[in-house]
Amino acid sequence: MKHLIGIICFLSAAITASSQKIMGFSEANAVKQLEWEKQFDTKLRPADQDEWMKFLSSHPHHVGSPQGKANAEYMASLFKQWGYETEIAVYQVLFPTPKTRALELLGVKPFKAKLEESALKEDKTSGQKAEQLPTYNAYSADGDVTAELVFVNRGIPADYEELARMGVSVKGKIVIAKYGGSWRGIKPKVAYENGAVGCIIYSDPADDGYVQGDTYPEGAYRRSDGVQRGSVMDMPIYPGDPLTPGVGATENAKRIDRKDAITIMKIPVLPISYADALPLLQSLGGQVVPAAWRGGLPITYHTGPSKEKVHLKLEFNWDIKPLYNVIAKLRGSELPDEWVLRGNHHDGWVNGAADPLSGMVAEMAEAKAVGELVKNGMKIKRTLVYCAWDGEEPALLGSTEWAEDHQEELRQKAVAYINTDGNSRGFIGAGGSHTLEPFFNEIADVVTDPQTGVSIKERKYAQAMVNADKAGRTKLAGNKNIKLEALGAGSDWGGFLQYLGIASMNFGFGGEGSGGEYHSIYDSYDMFTRYKDPGFQYGVTLSKTAGRTTLRLANAEILPVDFTSFQKTVMEYTSELKTLLENMRAETDAENKMINDKLFDLAKDPKKVYASPLVKEQVPFLNFSSLENMLVQLKASAEEYQRMYSKGTQLSPDKQKELNEILFRAERSLLQEKGLPRRSWYKHQVYAPGFYTGYGVKTLPGIREAIEQRAWTEAQENIEVVAKTFQEYTQQIKRVLELLKTVADPEKKSF
Amino acid sequence: MKHLIGIICFLSAAITASSQKIMGFSEANAVKQLEWEKQFDTKLRPADQDEWMKFLSSHPHHVGSPQGKANAEYMASLFKQWGYETEIAVYQVLFPTPKTRALELLGVKPFKAKLEESALKEDKTSGQKAEQLPTYNAYSADGDVTAELVFVNRGIPADYEELARMGVSVKGKIVIAKYGGSWRGIKPKVAYENGAVGCIIYSDPADDGYVQGDTYPEGAYRRSDGVQRGSVMDMPIYPGDPLTPGVGATENAKRIDRKDAITIMKIPVLPISYADALPLLQSLGGQVVPAAWRGGLPITYHTGPSKEKVHLKLEFNWDIKPLYNVIAKLRGSELPDEWVLRGNHHDGWVNGAADPLSGMVAEMAEAKAVGELVKNGMKIKRTLVYCAWDGEEPALLGSTEWAEDHQEELRQKAVAYINTDGNSRGFIGAGGSHTLEPFFNEIADVVTDPQTGVSIKERKYAQAMVNADKAGRTKLAGNKNIKLEALGAGSDWGGFLQYLGIASMNFGFGGEGSGGEYHSIYDSYDMFTRYKDPGFQYGVTLSKTAGRTTLRLANAEILPVDFTSFQKTVMEYTSELKTLLENMRAETDAENKMINDKLFDLAKDPKKVYASPLVKEQVPFLNFSSLENMLVQLKASAEEYQRMYSKGTQLSPDKQKELNEILFRAERSLLQEKGLPRRSWYKHQVYAPGFYTGYGVKTLPGIREAIEQRAWTEAQENIEVVAKTFQEYTQQIKRVLELLKTVADPEKKSF
Q1: Do A394 and A63 touch, CB atoms closer than 8 A?
Q2: Domains and CATH numbers, chain A
């Protein structure tokens, strides 16, 4: 027995030692850091998050609302209380709110849309009618249009191609599109490009309503009169205040004319409920829609046009409104000019409990805990900046204006930006710059899932395996690494990552708290505590995750940047692009042959209007060699850095500082000042929101979107641009390597 | 120019010559046959089919109805008029009809199901209330049950496994299942096996209603009160009269007791409309169903049990009814004892215009045209037998009883059985014995699609290519061969193919005349001529297809049997089985590992009842060698026959007769007298309806179903049975080869 005990002790010691190695820390500092993290966890109290959410969600708190301002002041006073240098950074932004909203079906069976959500006794704040923003899409155009209605499915370009084959044009028509399948702002943009004069967007119950589950308040899903508010600003061009692109919207900032603001929609757009959509959809004539377009209403879906006309009238107050960002800083003890930023927005469309407060209160809990640790003697090497953004919902206003306003300082000082935006129950979702992937995985290994007691990484792996198909399981089996999702649009990282080149991450738990409250009056404290994260178990788990991320970045001796993860990821992206091009070529050739063989003509039902596709231009071969040669160099440098990484801690403090500065500024070299084609604000060459998908990220966007749009010359040009970008990036790694080469070789370890 | 014209003439002659080669005919006889076929086409008049359908569908014509008998007499008189020896073969069969039908939801919000379809002014025969069979499932048990309701999706075994994981049992409950996903009789059978006391089947609008298209009469799809009648007899055990398995149900046949008839359902079963289903489904509590189970009603689907109980009461008249098969023979001029059979049923659930009359009138047109050709001097070598079956709908009654009654004669004489059962507009669908595949393809090459003017084969290929995914297109490209589908259950070939081993085929056009009239009062002349095949264009095309098939089989010098097609197909089936087994092994191992690694436990939502799967027994390796060795021999013989086939016409008439007899009886050697496990009536070892799918065919069923049921010993035994079967089959080919070897080698052709 003695022998066996010995083995157990040995194993246990080995495990402890290995779990005390953390990226960027010497072993001694790692032990200290882990000790602080243990204490950090004990400071995270669900009751705090509950109390804060209750207050912050007690009234509607959109941009310009009294509660929005009160919330900023409430948080600022707490941050101050916890020991932070806190300011409220105010910007003046264009924020339209509705003056007139009318939608009606004309003709013999007229119908007037209700455009209002019901107050419910089961939901205490749902009756705050006077304070609620009505259901609308921010940055819609003013308009008063009367026209036939056409159903355009999701309203993305492929849907219009299908309509064209069915002989349906939207020119001069009002379109009605289902939410989903793209970011909402894409729908009116593409409708306008196709000649429509108005756009209605509705939540179909198949996606967001009774088809998914019982509706609120019996269940969590969207009621028949529930409406998804939301921005339709053309943020894939640039986010933030439409009048001040590229500069902070300070009181005296130079503003462009509203008519010159290209991100404002050109046609009126209105979101409606499925109860309001039903009579409109029932009025549609024309062909029955393709099977993939069907929704969950009890009707046969038709393309239209409608038998009767629809009248849509929208007028807005085009006011400049103040917004209130709360910025709370804790000056770094050693490296005050290196900033680790942590943000979540605080504005909601209405009471916004899940979106955004569930993430906001997790961030607040982190800040409070850090404040207590500091009082207990913890030193934080770098400066922490906790941000509570206003105006995210309309257009990432608060974060974008602040980032633009402080761009010079941020370019110098920002180490990373850690974002959250709401939280729920279930599985970790994580996106971000791929240099930070191994760093994040180390954290995911040690944060415990509150429902199962295993690490959040183990649980994520279990979910992926169980949901994967056979091929997916085979590929996945045993590989527990959490691949960070590439960041497109959707929350406040845009200004930091895509405009300034600051490595960013975004976290949230979800998958078991689904519901239909999104951007409605039902996103309330009552709803959240009943259906989303009762007891704030995952609120605390999010604090543990984002808190560790923030603290480790703040205290690391050498920043935990891994170039090989980045390099592998961009190699995958490159290989995807080559496959995309090859597939397009093969499919184009195959389809062209089928067209020439008249197979489409022969297969179609002669009694229906359905044009065969047209022959497409052949897909040329592109020259990827400059990019591929560059990737070889990137790989070599990245791998060399990986081998030499551990030498970093042996550098002198000054050299370490120099090293870290290169490390965190390396992401800046992934920008190109002239930006992406047709959208110069987006400068990052690896990640961008899709021009025609919105939320959906496009990786290596300059090349990918050009290929997708069959703009071959542009694609070739962008291959060269990306190759040059990676050359500049590789240069940064080489600078790091030069630095590390000044350290004498350490002794070879025997084990 | 002259030279060029020469080439054209040469090519054109070559094409004509080649198109005048048909399987089984010497070149001289092929020319004659093709000439007659041209004349045959000219005799096919759409107006005939229209007139006959109008009469035959003028009143409900189910088994035992006055119109059913009148229709038999009408057809018999026409066949006689066209020159056929015609008889009406009467059998006495058990055919239950409803006495009491009641379905209600009890409790505070009671609901009584309407169980009736509306008369419509747009559909002239829909108001014939007194003559219509009410909505019911034939061969349901009598019953009066009151119990909670549970939703079981499609009601197949996998659905009950999912329910068990969700903690839902149907023991003592009434189940409600959606139509589709299996043959309807599987649903009450599996419900009973799982302990349910009653079964309701409804047509969900997602499958069969407004989700698919506009409802009748505005469109062709099922109305909210439309009901699919149908049999639920356990036909995968044996079809035909439940009281006379294996013998003809003649007046004095020996009958088993009704209580011993195992094909009659053990619990009451009732089909209902989606209007009647809605309140029942709304009454269900319990969990929300898995996404794949959702239907198209405007509710959240739950598993149940229901909050209130459901009362189902069914009583039937268990009467013996006469049925009337029309059998019209034209004695063969040379080989009167070789019969080519052509059949379609004539009974309908109600007015049955599409099902079955659209196929029946096509067959009648063929018989009429043949009669005229014979009057014009055409000789038909073999005996033609045109059959119009009664009682197909309840249980393939007419064809099965006739086949059982005449089994000895049919075993001797039947060359092949050609079935149709309804027809519509669009693309050819063809199933059958794989020895006949090249023969069928030759016909599909020369029958013209009436809408596009290309051959029905070209159009079928275009459809397959356009609907295929990328991988499918690559595989398919250029291969226009129409693969015959394997025949399971679903129409009158059962007695011929699966009980007697007579090579069978089944044809029909479809894909462009979809609707929701199936087994309802709306399957009417009005409906058919408006939505299914207006103008009977495809009725005539079906006559051309089935007519050629019948005539060529009747006149071929050497029967157009191709053993290599059969051999390739069974090799594919064998390879499928091996893949099935390998996949089951890999999946079982992978899933067991996931279970042991607790991945299912970790991935599930702890707030929901959802048991992780249980560890399954490992999948053993089976010994396929006897079967595979046999397939090698089969291949060799089949290929040798293909090389020697053309010698057949050089045999003496006697030897040719001997050869043909071996050829058409070869299919008999695919039977095993003891039948399939647990269902001795099904003797064919290659094709059978699935025990748990019903319509769905199972190829090499003895092996396949044993593997699917994880009955490893039975699977191994059946590998040996099938190997032995193929040995006997190969023996028949060897007998043919011996015969052909008596012919001296023909001169080698130079080209």
Answers
A1: yes
A2: 30-93+321-555 (3.40.630.10), 97-318 (3.50.30.30), 563-740 (1.20.930.40)
